[in-house]
Amino acid sequence: MPSRIGIDIGGTKIDALVLSPQGEARFEKRIATPSGYDALIAAVASLVGEAAAIAGPDATVGIGAPGSASPETGRWRNANMVFCNGRPLPADLAQAIALPVKLENDANCFALSEAFDGAGAGFPVVCFYTIGTALGGGLVIDGKLRSGPNAEAAEFGHLPLPWPNETEWPLLPCFCGKAGCVEQYVSGTGLARDYNALTGQALKGAEIVARARAGESAAKAALERLADRFARLTASLVNTLDPDILVVGGGLSSLPELVEELGERASAYSFSGRARIRVARAYHGEKSGVRGAARLWSQG
Ligand SMILES: [Zn+2]
Fold first, then answer.
1. How many angstroms does the Cα of residue 78 sit away from the middle of ligand 1?
2. Can you give the residue ranges of every domain in the chain?
3. What pLDDT, in 10s, does the model give residues 206-224?
4. Fold of 4-105+287-299
5. What is the 152 CA–ligand 1 centroid distance (Å)?
């Protein structure tokens, strides 16, 4: 089996990793994400070159990035790195890199990593969330990433907020063109907006959490709404898929409200009202993105 090169393209940084045939990390490097398309392609090609010098000439390359390729046109779409949208990212990366390349949505790479040897290992149906600035999702069934014929799975962040209450109208517009997408509520950005609407103060998610822990009532209420909305989303997944485990990663996954308390909170919203829902925090943390990218070639 060849060594596997993984690349995780994020909005602010790009991670590279070489996994040996035995699964050991042999090379790790992080660079800042360039701000233009051509510079991004060149930076990824250069990182792959460095990794390939260690991985050997028969290495495979897997790359995770926000967004996905349109199955019809091969052009990239829905990326928060907007300079990639509309560009033939898979073809341009394949041309710039002299090794076989697979490209996948970054949250799908996280899901694959956690299902393979992380918190979801051994479970048949694994739903994965990454909650940071945005809300990403991934679905792995029997060890296989499910992205579907339209490459639309598993965009949990763009499901509509389930069971909105009277205070949640009108629903918030989303960058995808719809209104009411859960990502607008369940994310660091959503928490900040919610707190701002209540208090008029513009704070980052971490500062709001710190204020909640210090006992500030507005911050505690915003955090409670975040947890409740996340529970509603999770109940809708339980009603659809009844996954064996839900794995939560991303910057906000350190909050017990979004991991330890999620199963019980979501259970109340499930159809039976008493589903037993297994939830775990991502085992590999933020490294799951690049580890999952390296594993893309195990997907056949
Ligand atoms: Zn949306």
1. 10
2. 4-105+287-299, 119-282
3. 999 999 999 999 999 999 9
4. Nucleotidyltransferase; domain 5 (3.30.420)
5. 12
